[in-house]
Design brief:
The protein contains 18 helices and no strands. With about 400 residues, the protein is mainly alpha-helical. The chain has one domain: Up-down Bundle (Growth Hormone, Chain: A), CATH 1.20.1250. Helix 1 packs antiparallel against helix 6 (about 105-120). The protein is globular.
């Protein structure tokens, strides 16, 4: 593990700088992990069905799912900085190869490997935030870090879809390649591993054996990720196919929605600090997401002045839960288990999210966008009863 700096010598400015670097790293990785969804319109125009294009778009999430626990173990044992540098450099290399080659089969394989390397940021960047920020500021800090995912998706929406439409799907891989290379440089300059107790001097029992708290949060996160990926994957295609929008106009709307979603994550994190709870705000988010997805399903066939604003609202609400659940898992698991716990958390989420594009594409083809959006409301509704609010510890314990 890299040598740790004395926490007394790390001022507030350096902590916030490392938060910025961690956020950049996660945003760059998110372009690789989720940007493939914005290849779907071009792939569909080239003759693939929505289900086939969704299968290619799901390749990065499968790669993420297969490696998250391994990256979490690596983070627990070797430190956050090394994991971030290794993963970002690997993602940039995979993206470069994809940009310079051709063939859809090879593209799918490279997207799989790109997701596998990009997964490094999920646990490591969050651990940097949890390790350097005190509990009473951690919700806000993690909310800022969690804005990276919708920010990365928004950047992908406005760039990947346009580059793919004009220059082909392989050329669109330059976006994630450049972003990850830049993030790797920033991490190398800025990030220091947060301090942690000496492993030999601290008893660190398996938190999964104590109770079902972590398992229930994992289950809640799986349910809540389904409507999130339904919106992320099909909002742009719906705007282009059903509403007749251009790729550029649809991409700009998705970007705006993702920016608002990023701000929503910050607000949710700050609310959790003020409420001294991560799970009570999480329950409010679940109720809100269920209601919004139902309304979106009921109005998707109506005029744009009704459905389009609901797409934006759904984008905001369906991403607001991630930072709350992520922080709750990291705080309960502790410094020697949080890497693996966050890896399991994200593995379960990506297992569910990898199924959304192909299954969602099949459903849209059979029953239409309205029913697909409405059915997604069932998942956050089921999550409400699983949230272990009564078992939550006071912040700082």
């Amino acid at each position: 593990m890299t040598a740790l700096a004395d926490p007394i010598t790390i001022g507030a400015a350096r902590r916030w700088t490392m938060l910025g670097a961690s956020t950049l790293a996660q945003a760059a990785a998110a372009i690789m992990m989720h940007g493939a969804a914005y290849l779907i319109p071009t792939l569909h125009q080239e003759g693939l069905s929505l289900a086939e294009a969704g299968l290619i778009a799901a390749a990065p999430t499968v790669g993420v799912m297969l490696t998250l626990v391994g990256w979490g173990w690596f983070t627990d044992h070797r430190g956050e900085r090394m994991v971030l540098l290794t993963g970002l450099a690997g993602t940039a290399l995979v993206g470069l190869i994809a940009a310079l080659t051709s063939g859809l089969v090879l593209l799918g394989v490279l997207l799989l490997f790109g997701g596998a390397t990009a997964a490094s940021t999920n646990a490591a960047s969050g651990r940097v935030v949890v390790g350097w920020f005190p509990p009473q500021r951690r919700g806000l800090a993690m909310g800022i870090r969690q804005m990276a995912q919708p920010a990365g998706v928004g950047i992908a929406a406005v760039t990947v879809s346009v580059v793919a439409a004009r220059h082909g799907v392989h050329a669109a891989m330059w976006v994630s390649t450049i972003a990850c290379a830049l993030a790797a440089v920033v991490v190398a300059v800025v990030v220091i591993d947060p301090p942690r107790p000496d492993r030999k001097s601290v008893v660190s029992p398996n938190p999964y054996r104590a109770d079902r708290y972590l398992a229930r949060i994992h289950g809640v996160s799986v349910l809540l990720v389904v409507p999130q990926f339904v919106v992320w994957t099909f909002a742009l295609v719906w705007l282009m196919q059903d509403r007749g929008w251009s790729a550029g106009a649809a991409g700009v709307l998705v970007l705006v929605a993702q920016i608002m979603g990023a701000l929503g994550r910050i607000a949710a994190g700050q609310l959790s600090d003020l409420m001294h709870s991560r799970l009570r705000p999480l329950r409010l988010v679940a109720w809100s997401a269920a209601g919004t997805m139902l309304l979106l399903g009921l109005t998707a066939g109506a005029g744009w002045f009704v459905a389009v604003p609901l797409v934006v609202i759904a984008t905001v609400l369906t991403v607001a839960d991630n930072g709350l659940a992520f922080t709750a898992v990291a705080e309960r698991a502790g410094p020697f288990w949080s890497g693996r716990a966050l890896g399991l958390q994200n593995t379960a989420q990506f297992l569910a999210s990898s199924l959304v594009p192909p299954i969602g594409g099949l459903l849209v083809g059979q029953i239409g966008y309205s029913w697909a959006f409405a059915l997604a409301a069932l998942f956050p509704l089921a999550a409400v009863g699983m949230i272990p609010v009564g078992d939550e510890h006071p912040l700082g314990e």
